[in-house]
Task: structure prediction
Amino acid sequence: MSRVIALDYGERRLGVAVGDTDIGVASGLPTIVHTGRKDLRRQLEAVVEEQTPELIVVGYPLLMDGSRGERCEAVDAFARYLTGWFGLQLVLRDERLTSVEAERIRKEAGRSERDAREEGLVDRAAAILLLQNWFDSSDRSGIDPGTPPADREDDAR
Result:
């Protein structure tokens, strides 16, 4: 059994889901709300320590036409940090429409946008959808992000 964590990256919020490859079912963990890279690392270390994953799946925000937009650069840097922090295998996975689907689920559940944001429901749902799509896929390969930007000390916050 291999534990897998999925992350839906945002500048201030990180949706988190977990599951294992034997069962193939994704479950949500509390959304991480962070104040910067150091705080994010501290919170992620707690998740990694508790969940002991062998793999991290990170949502990759391709544009609808399949090209890379500005947000991909931030995820490339985040992926580099994750690899350095934890030394775990990492897969970047196309996340197109997971946030749209998560928002649809929120609306169907009758939750207000404000309440859902405060509780991190949409971020968590996006991470669950990302991981479940990865589990359900016959192709579990990821996206080659190229060479991520170098780690910058002035971004440590």
The first strand starts at residue 3 and ends at 8. The helical segments are 37-51, 70-86, 98-108, 113-119, 121-136. Residues 3-141 form a domain with the Nucleotidyltransferase; domain 5 fold (CATH 3.30.420.140). Strands lie at 3-8, 13-20, 27-33, 55-60, 89-94.
